[in-house]
Design a protein that fits this description.
The protein has nine helices and eight strands. By secondary structure, it is of the alpha/beta class. Strands 7-5-6-4-1-2-3-8 form an eight-stranded mixed sheet, sandwiched between helices.
């Protein structure tokens, strides 16, 4: 008996779900079943895009089996592990729907919440972010660092959300048209959208404890998020006027150099030789090094973005595509 479900034509697709996958072989079939049940309650045509981000287990084989039985399923296999942001970018690029919904493939997000996200979009919002109000994760290593990070991100980005790290969100396609994702930038999409004039809100969503597979998140990601946050703040405030930040640091370096020089001269007048006072030299040298490294980091960020965007170059490479008709 043919178990394949009805094909959704690309031009009729209303909703695109996309899920980054990394070594989730135990969770994929149950996750697909939950998604299918959630979509069955919606009177909307949808596609399901799984992006295999270089899995080393049987995830890709299982995804191909799922795609054979469900014509709504598409599979993108990346050549190696590029990270969650690149996998999400691949899903966004492949999506055909007018509403884009990313979510995790580890069964911690609940597909039943998709209906509530869509209902909130129908109220006139452009971005609806999930809030794991009763988050089922470890307190010390996950929840507390996340709460601190969310407050800092909200303060710097100007968009006050409780949970930037929740993958389950809903976007209208037009708010993602000009978004380019790098590093861990996927969590900042609501900020980019808000800067472009989108209406952003959030709703509480269910969150389940992981029961199978291994978490891919660690405390090291918090450090990466902090660096990316510095970058988006720089891009927002100084992308078209970098001389402001360069000039500020230049003036600071000059001011400190001036103070150090005056101090050294005062010591000299009092009879202390420059040779006997290495502290001013150390201060000036270390200051120069720190300023150089920081500014070189910002310059490198601008160069990387220019490199990718001027060539329209993707930040990932696809090995295989399954279920795509065009």
């Amino acid at each position: 008996m043919d178990t394949r479900q009805n094909v959704n034509k690309a031009e009729d697709t209303e909703i695109s779900l996309f899920l980054p996958v990394l070594d989730e072989e135990e969770n994929l079939r149950p996750m697909h079943a939950k998604i299918a049940a959630a979509l069955a309650e919606l009177d909307r045509k949808a596609e399901i895009i799984f992006v295999d981000d270089g899995s080393t287990d049987r995830s890709l084989a299982i995804l191909k089996e799922i795609a054979e039985k469900d014509d709504r399923v598409r599979v993108i296999s990346l050549r190696r592990n590029y990270g969650q942001t690149a996998a999400m970018a691949a899903g966004i690029d492949a999506a055909k729907g007018e509403i884009l919904i990313p979510m995790d493939a580890d069964l911690q997000n609940d597909p039943a919440d998709i209906k509530r996200l869509l209902e909130k979009l129908d109220e006139g919002f452009d971005v609806v972010s999930g809030w794991r109000k009763n988050r089922q994760d470890k307190l010390i290593s996950r929840k507390i660092p996340s709460q601190i990070a969310n407050r800092i991100i909200s303060w710097i980005g100007g968009v006050h959300l409780h949970d930037y790290g929740c993958s389950l969100k809903a976007y209208r396609r037009d708010v993602l048209q000009d978004v380019r994702l790098y590093g861990e930038m996927h969590r900042f999409i609501p900020i980019y959208a808000s800067w472009a004039g989108a209406r952003v809100t959030e709703i509480p969503v269910d969150h389940h404890a992981r029961t199978m597979g291994k978490s891919k998140y660690g405390i090291s990601r918090t450090v990466k998020v902090i660096f990316d946050l510095m970058t988006i703040k720089f891009m927002a405030s100084y992308q078209t006027k970098p001389i402001y930040v360069f000039g500020t640091f230049g003036m600071l370096a000059f001011f400190l150099s001036l103070i150090a020089g005056i101090w050294a001269i005062v010591l000299k007048i009092e009879g202390t030789s420059f040779i006997l006072t290495p502290l001013p030299v150390i201060t000036v040298v270390m200051l120069a090094i720190s300023v150089q490294f920081f500014l070189m980091g910002l310059l490198a960020e601008l160069l990387v973005r220019t490199y990718h965007e001027s060539q329209d170059k993707a930040i990932y490479a696809v090995r295989e595509r399954v279920g795509f008709k065009d």
